[in-house]
Amino acid sequence: MSLLRQMGLNFASYQEPFVNMPEETIVEALKVVLDERNHPILIHCKRGMHRTGCLVGCLRRMQKWCLSSIFDEYQRFAAAKARVSDQRFIEMFDISSLNQLTFPFSCLKRQKQMP
Predict the structure, then answer these.
(1) Nearest Cα residue to 36 out of 113, 114, 111
(2) Do 69 and 41 form a contact (C-beta atoms < 8 A)?
(3) Contact yes or no for 32/38 (Cβ under 8 A)
(4) pLDDT, tens digit, for every residue of 60-88?
(5) Given the residues 45, 54, 66, 107, the one annotated as active site
């Protein structure tokens, strides 16, 4: 932790359950991820697949990625360990409450419209 502080990096930790992560935990983690004041950011869980994949999948939904692209990215990193339950969580996750949040700096504001 001291090395992170010396490098000027912040650390946010969420006590994760072994398998199922409550939606509220994802919402709180997304608030940290969406706020550019916390960037650059590294997202990681114990193995870097399931909980990380769910969080990033929910972020991609907020970034308006199509589900097939979200699932492709998830499966690429989870590989043989991909879980249908994770993909179902991503698909069913309610992003509407997060769409109402405003941040002084948000990674969602930078998306450029295609001509």
Answers:
(1) 111
(2) no
(3) yes
(4) 999 999 999 999 999 999 888 899 999 99
(5) 45
Contacts of 29 (CB under 8 A, 6+ apart): 12, 14, 43, 55
Q: Are 75 and 50 in contact (CB under 8 A)?
A: no
107 tagged catalytic: no
What is the identity of the amino acid at 115? P
- Nearest alpha-carbon partner for 56 in 34, 24, 85, 81: 34
Name all domains of the chain by residue range, CATH numbers in brackets: 21-92 (3.90.190.10)
Measured CA to CA, the distance from residue 96 to residue 90 in angstroms comes to: 13
